[in-house]
Amino acid sequence: MKSRSLFWGIIGGLSGGTVLTLMGLLLYTSITTSNSHILDGTISSAGTATDQLSLNFSNLEEISDTTNLVGKSLELALFFETATFDQILELLNQTVSSFGNFHTWYIQEFLVKQLASMDPQATLDAIQSMRPTRHLNLISTLYSSWATQDPVEAIRSAARQARHMQPAVIRAIASTLPIPLSSDILQLADSLKIGGLLDEALAEVAAKQLMRSSPQAAFESIFSDNVDDVRQESLLSETIGTWMSEDDDEALTLLLNSFRDEYAKIGLFDARANRLFLNLLNQIVQEYPLEFWQLNLDNPSNLRDSLNDHILRVWASLDPQAAMEAISEIKGSEIFQESYRTVWTTRAEVEPTGALQAVRQVPQELRKTVIAYAVRSLARTERLEQALSTIVQMKELGENVGLAVRWLTNTWIEYDASAATDWLLETDSVNDTLRKNVLQEVLPALSLTEPLRAYRIAVEYGDPEAFDQRFTLENRVIESLAQTGDFERATALLQEVDESLLVTARSTIGLSLVSFGKIDEAIALGSELARSDQPQYFQNLAIIWFQLRPDELFENLAKLPTVESQQSVATTLLQDHLDYRAEMSQDEISVLENLVSETKSQ
Question: Is the pTM above the cut of 0.85?
Answer without folding.
Answer: no
